[in-house]
Write a structure and sequence with these properties.
This protein has 72 residues and is mainly α. It is 57% helix and 0% strand. α1 runs antiparallel to α3. The longest helix has 22 residues.
Amino acid sequence: MDESRDPTPPAGSGPPIAGELSPVQRAYGRYATHFLKCLACRDIDRSCTEGGQLWRDYEATSSAVGRLMSDT
């Protein structure tokens, strides 16, 4: 017999489709990825120029998106 034994699942019940990350998520992801690999960033007594710039980029992106959202 060619009939399926399992009932057909209802429409829209499949796995979620992964979409593109938001600009804020991408900026934070770049910072977090760097932070996890950089010993200087994880040490409270040291600083890292690249990590600091990535954090400022994340803050600037967050602020810009916040301003855009408040204008609507």
